[in-house]
Every structure is written in structure tokens, then in C-alpha cells.
Write a structure and sequence with these properties.
The complex is a heterodimer of chains A (716) and B (311). The N and C termini of chain A lie far apart (83 Å). Chain A is mainly alpha-helical and 716 residues long. A two-stranded antiparallel sheet of chain A has the order 1-4. Chain A has two domains: 491 residues, Cytochrome C Oxidase, Chain A; 169 residues, Cytochrome c-like domain (Cytochrome Bc1 Complex, Chain D, domain 2, Orthogonal Bundle), CATH 1.10.760.10. By secondary structure, chain B is mainly α. Chain B contains twelve helices and four strands. Chain B starts with a helix and ends with a helix. In chain B, 58% of the residues lie in helices and 5% in strands. A two-stranded antiparallel sheet of chain B has the order 1-2. A two-stranded antiparallel ribbon of chain B has the order 3-4. Among the domains of chain B are: 53 residues, no CATH class; 30 residues; 119 residues, Cytochrome c-like domain (Cytochrome Bc1 Complex, Chain D, domain 2, Orthogonal Bundle). The C terminus of chain B is likely disordered. In chain B, helix 8 crosses helix 11 and helix 10 crosses helix 11. Classes of the chains: A mainly alpha (716), B mainly alpha (311). At the A-B interface, helix 2, helix 6, helix 7, helix 8 and helix 9 of A face strand 1, strand 2, helix 6, helix 7 and helix 9 of B. Chain A: It is found in: Cell membrane.
Chain lengths: 716, 311
Amino acid sequence: MSDALLEKFSYDNKIVKYFGAATMIWGIVGMLVGILAATQLFLPEANLGNPYTTYGRIRPLHTNAVIFAFVGNAIFAGVYYSMPRLLKARMWSDALSWINFWGWQLIILAAAITLPLGLTTSKEYAELEWPIDIAIAVVWVAFGANMIGTLLKRRERHMYVAIWFYLASFVTVAVLHIFNSLALPVSFFKSYSAYAGVQDALVQWWYGHNAVAFFLTTPYLGLMYYYLPKAANRPIYSYKLSIIHFWSLIFIYIWAGPHHLLYTALPNWAQVLGVAFSIMLIAPSWGGMVNGLLTLRGAWDKVRVDPVLKFMVVAVTAYGMATLEGPLLSLKSVNAIAHYTDWIVAHVHIGALGWNGFLTFGMLYWLWPKLWKTKLFSTKLANTHFWLGTLGIIFYALPMYVAALTQSLMWKEFNEMGRLAYPNFLETVLEIVPMYMFRAFGGVLYLIGALLMVYNLIKTSKIGTFVAEEADEAPALTKHVAQKGEYWHHVWERKPIFFTLLATLAILIGGAIEIVPTLLVKSNVPTISSVEPYTPLELQGRDLYISNGCVGCHSQMIRPFRSETERYGEYSKAGEFVYDRPFLWGSKRTGPDLHRVGRKYPDSWHYHHMLDPRTMSPGSTMPAYSWMITNTMDHEDMPDKIRTMQKLGVPYPEGYADGQAMMDLEKQAEEIVAGLSEDNIEVLPHAEIVALIAYLQRLGTDIKKVDAPTDNSLAK
Amino acid sequence: MKKNKFLALLSLLGMASSSVFAQKASGEGVIAALSNMDSSQITLLILIVVVLGVMVLLLILMIYLMSFMGAVLRKENPELANEPTWWESFNEKYISGKYQPIEEEEEIMLDHSYDGIVELDNFMPPWLKYVFYGTIIFAIGYLVNYSTLGWGKTPSEEYKAELEAEAIAAESRKALALASIDENNVEFDQSDQVLIAGGNIFQNNCVACHAADGGGGVGPNFTDEYWIHGGSIKDVFTVIKYGVPEKGMIPWQDQLSPEEIQQVANFILSLKGTTPANPKEPQGELYDPEEEGSIESGEDSAAMDSTTVAS
């Protein structure tokens, strides 16, 4: 190649530095919040006595911080460094890069403010309210546009496998985010999901599962395909394996969402599809692990000494473990035991701490010295980080597995009289409290390791000099001359738009086949005539329940097992949730299921229990919600909520919101207040507790109304 | 090499014999079974054991001889020495695949580098390929099982089966159990044994609403003489068993056995006259055990109870 054809250009390292620094900062924040949440599970007083830092609100803060802030920034840092180098072209637009950076940080900040305030949709990993959702979509598209622009002016004809993964991630996350976030706003901070009950659950877990797939997995596989061979200085083991596992992974992953809803009211055919495709995911997932580990063939001597490679090897291994465990958990018999327990928590943390965390650490340890043209400040410190992190993962995961099995078996055990051996749910919680302490200790170890890294990398940047613009040169892309016998996939690799469209098609099929029939075919959700919309006060109480993140610990989905129906009552039916926007089935039972809690205890029980749970359930680990007694709600937004619900098809009477609704609300509140005063409890009718009691007492009672109509029916 | 094989053979024999010993050690039952056999059966058994033993020995010998011959052949014929063994070729074909030696990697290296990263053109490891095929076959079988064949049970069918199994178990429990306690035959019994057991049940289940000393709270006070639903042992038993859902008292019949309900009901009656820390005001009607007749429920046994209460 003659020098005359070489074009000179430079790479933007500043954006990489910024995203890298943001990764570290948010990583530390996210882990700290995680430790706080973990502590509250054995020490409820650690909620600091206010609603903003109580478990139900900081759990989503933790998950959002580590997924979207820590991992999200790491993806951007990794992509903004590797993509221009793989394409021999500077990122398309500096402006878009910075919109991406500052936009994303603002979104995170908005999340960190709104979630503790209780502004949430309560849909897992999609908790943020609609204005933030729109901002996410805009910034994400800016990121995608920047990638596609770079592809269009690339100097490298073919796209390397890392870029396939980046593109698929971009497209899929956009599709998932938009469809799952569809909602009708009530006000700037409140909206109701476009889907109800079973449908909402299916769309949510199509999203939730694939957020794991296309936010935590595929972008990271792309990063692995760049940083692992770079750090090991070894060729990628198999190009063919890359092709097979890329396409099979993105095609199959999208189908597996329903495995989060096994034995629920989701139609059985969707559950069966979810299981079948989850099992088929094993080999495509392992393709990534195998290609990564075999790339290290001949470099294992380096793994012994290089902390970067150590982190990466454990990351890839953790990925392999989690992606085998996932399909096994989706087998119905295993799921019957594991669902709602800490097993799932352990499983996701093998992925989050092992795969995402360790790959990020490895990448940063590799990147920082490159950006500052120097050597890592201290390899010894990095090795210490590695061991602390590894120990942290073990101390986290093992107690969680023990806790999960112990508790699940206790839930399911019957005595020789055919009764539940542990009818008191609390007994099964207290049994595993020591395990929660170990878990928090594991988290602390992991955090200390991460802090060591931050120190080490700051020191590294101090001893080097930052290269903001890194110069490179490459020949311009010439007109392509078709070659005969070119490998079919190699042809695709030089057609980025075509490639992206194919990937989009691959990810749309599974979702469409599962979701469209569930939305459109009526028989999938058999209606129950006695199920009616919530009364205005109950609706307000439900929104309080949502706002306080109660769903983080309490499920509302009784599965058809005798061990559950004996404990909670009749199992949950699809038709009971048709007015639930959003659905509140939950995914974890730190406390008991609440779907049939309605009319189980007197109002005064709930009053005392919310004031101080330990007076009603001695030893309970639930935090006190004493402020609900004194906080009052102005119900001004209620008529708008009713109107929004009507637009979504909830059959409130015509014009109900114009006056009747408020009268009904006041009437029901007065009734509850009068009932409480009989037990010498004085509370204002507009107190939060009144609305909450109204909602809790309604839960799961509609199907019992068939023979005895109660006062829950709306004024018609 | 040879030595190793010999050692392996020895250890194999050792394992076989030790397992025989192990069987003897736990062999009381075996001996009993043997002594019940007639002579022709024993002869047959011995014959079978001997034949099986000989077959195993012959197999081991064959494998050993073959590997020995293989080694000899290889030594005599250097060309054969490079031939892969049966296991090596199986492994290469179906499990690990053929690894290109690292020194010869260039041969399968794709002629392109992306920012310095090159790719090899290795095949997907066979074991992974077969895992993939296996899972696809499983998935197809799974789908067919739950759809066209309809053999797989839906969750509600599984639940139905679980209920049926429990119904049968409940029947057999009923048949086994002595006359079960219910509200008609519950007994007033203030023995220590009953009160201690009842006290434990009370502490574990009732104190949230009725206070640890029975003084009441959400629920009524047990220490006074006023009862909302009657104060006889039968009344208390009935309230505990079936609950009073409209007033918030939950039914306990799914959580406590009839015997346990009897114990805790007796414990509750033993609280009368004690002085709780924060007594709730009396609720319901004054219950006088002497005037048992005024309460419409069962006459004779309750009357007997009341006399014991009075004493």
C-alpha cells in the first residue's frame, strides 16, 4: 500500500476517559446503595427512618445504578474506544458523543432523584417515569446514530465481530425500551402502563429478560471480543464459532422471557415456549465463553501474572456459569423451588459481579495505562483487588444459595398431618437472616476491591500524560470489487445496514410471536365477571403501594401449588388482573405474598402493622412505615387518574371522575376511619394509611364476591 | 507406561474385592435372604455370580492384552506409533476437536487484522455443537409433549393432581387417627401438660393481636369474664378453628391441628382472672360458667366443663 493513499486522522480519547470515570463513580455509588439495601434485610432500622431510603425505594435505585449507570457507562467507554479503532475512523460526531455522555449522566441523576422520591412505574429495571424514558430513548438513539455514522465513513471494509454485537445491542435495547415503556401519562410524574395484568407481565419480562441479554450480555460480549485478544495478544480462536453463536444467541434469547413467569397466570403455551427456548440458549451462550477461553490458548502463562487477564478469565467463567444456571432455573421443576427466593438474587449477582463487574475492571485496568501512555501504577494492588473481588463474589453467592434452598424447602414442607410445617412465613425469614449478614459482608469485600481500583487508576493517571487525541492513519475505503467465492457471512460483514436489518428481524420474531397473540387473542386471559375496577380510594392506595416499592418484597401471584394455596389462599387467575396497570406480581418474596391478603386481617391490624410491624409480627424484618399514619394525601390528582384509566379502557361509569369519584373516595375513607376509631385509633380520612388499608383489604377478594356481594362494588 | 497400566489393573481388582467386603459388612439382610433359599436356588445364584465374575475378568484381560499388543506393535512398527489411539480419535472427532498447534496457527489464520486482532478459522468445538443439537432436540420434544401430544401437564392440571394425592393421604390419615377432636367433643383440661403446650402455641401465634399476657389489643381481652362469642371451651374452640373473618379473627384450622387448637383454647381459658399490663376494656357479654343452660350450644358435656371451671 503506497503512502500516498494513507489518510491521517485521530481518535477521541477524552470521551473514553469521561465515560470510564463515570463508570467508576457510579459503580461505587451503586455498590454502596446495594450494601445499604443488603443491610436493611437483617437490620430494618438501616432504612434511616424515612421513606426515601427505605428498602422498597433503594432497591430499584441500586439495580438502576449498577445496570444503567455502572454497566451503561462501561459499555459507552468500551465502545467509544474500540469501535473507531476497529473501523479506522474517528467516531462520526463529537457533538453526538458529548450529547450521549451528558445526556446519560443527567438521566442517571434524574433516576437518583426520582426513585427515592417514590416516582416509579415499579416495572423492574424500567422503573423510571415517562419523561425520563423519553430522554433515554433520545440519548440511546444518539449513541446508535453515532455508531452508524462511524460505520458509514469507515476505512475498514468489514465489521469485526465486536461490532456485530454492538449493533444488535443498540437495535434491540431501543425496541425493548420503547415497547415496554408505553404508557399513558396522568401528569408529569405519573403514568399508567399501556398494558394490564397478564399482558403487562409478559411485555415486562420480555423486556426484563432481554435487558439482561442485550444490555448486560451482548454489549459485553462485544467488549470481550475486543479487549480480551488485545490484552492477551492472541488471535480469536474461531471466526466460525463467532458467527454461529452471534446469530443463534440473538435469535433465541428474545424468546426466553416467559421463564420469569412459570406457574403464573401467564397462558401455558407461552410458558412452554419460554422453557424450550431457554434450554436452547445454553450452547449459543457458551459459544462466547468457549471462544473467549480458547483465545487464551497459549497465553495461560500471562494469565498468571497479568491482573487484566485474571479479571477477564473469571468474568468469562462467571458468564459461562450464569448462562448454564439460567436455563436450568427455567426448567419448571427447578423454577418451582427457586422462584421468589434468593437463588435468583444469587444467580443475577454471579452475572453482575462476576461477568459485568470483572470484565469492566479488566477493561479499565487495560484502558487507563493506554490512555495515559504509561504503566499501571501498582500491579500488586490490582491483584489484591482481584482476590478481594473474587472472595466477595463467593461470600455473596454461597450464602444466598443456602438461604434460598433452606427457605424454599421450609415454604413447601408439610407435616405428617398434611399441614404446612412452617405456617408462619416469618419463621422462614428469620431462619436465613444470618445468611443475609454474610451476603452483605461479601458486598463490602467487593466494594473495597473496587475502591482499590479507583485509587490505583487515579495514581496511574498521575504518573502518565493523557493523550486526548491519538493519531492514526489508514487508506481510504476504495470501491469494492466483488470477489468470487467470498464467504457468505463475509459479504454481510461489509454491509452494515443490511446486517443491522437482519439482526433486527432476528430479534423481532420471538417477541412478536409471544406478545401479539397474548395481546390480541381473548382466550389467553379468561375474564372473571366479578372482577371490578378499583374504587378511587383503592386506586390511590395502590399507587402508594407502587410508590413505596412494596412489590420489591411482596409478590401478588399465588402459584398453583398446595404449599402456596394452603398458605395464601386460592391461586391467582389471569382474569383477576385485568385492571392492574401496572401488574404487581413481583419476583421475590422477602415477605409473604399479598394477593389474598384482602379481608384476612382487620383494618386495625394493618394500622398497627404499618406503624410498627414488630407489634403484630414479633421479629419481623419489615421496616416501619410510621409516616403513613401522619402523611396525608391530597387526592387532587385522583380524577385525572380515573380519566386516564378510562382512556385505557377501564370501565368506570361515564363522567365518574367529575364528582362522584371524589364522593365515593370520601365515603370509603370515612368508613375506614370510623371502623378504626371503634378500636380507639384516631386517624385523618386523608392519611396515607387509610388509602393503603383500602387497597390491601380489596386485594384478591373479587373472586370471593360471587356468593356474597360486598361494598366494594362501584356506584353505577 | 506399562507400569501404570498394571497399577490401574491392580487397583481395579482391589476396588472390586473391597466392594464385596463392604457388602458382607452390611449383610445381615443378605444372609437372612440366603438362608431362606432352597439349595437349587443357591446353586443357581452361585453359578450366576461365578459366570459374571469370569466375564468381567475376561473383559479386563482382553483390554489389557489389546493395549499390550498395541504397545508392542507400535514399538516394532514406528509408522504405527504416530497413529492416534481409539480414544484420541474419538476425542478429536466428537469432543474437543482438532487443535491446531500454536506454532502452525498461521495456516488457519484469516488474512485480516482489525486493529491488530486476527481471527483463526477453527471449527466450533464438537462437544459444543452436540450440546446445541441436544438442546434443540430437547426443546422440540418439550414443545411436542406440551402441545400436539398433550402429555405434559399444565400447571392447573398439576395442581389438581396434587390435590387428589392429598385427598387420598387425608383419607388414610383419618382412618389411622383416633377419634379426631372437634367442637363437639373438645375437652376442658387444665393439666400442666396441656397448658404448657397451649402457652407455646399462644406465644407463637396469638400475641400479635391478643398480647402476650392475654390483655388484648387488636383482638379482645381474655382475662376478663366477658366474651363476644361465648366463653365455654366449645365456643373458644369454634372461634379459633373457624375464625370470625368479618371481625378479623382468622381461621386457624389450616395452621393448627385439632389437638393444638384444644391446647391453646384451654390455655386461653386459664388466663381468666390474671392481671395483664394493659387490659383492653371488656367486650361482649358476661359469661358465667354456672349458667351454662343460657347458652344454646351443646348441653351435657359443657355442663360438665362448667363444673370443672368452677372448682
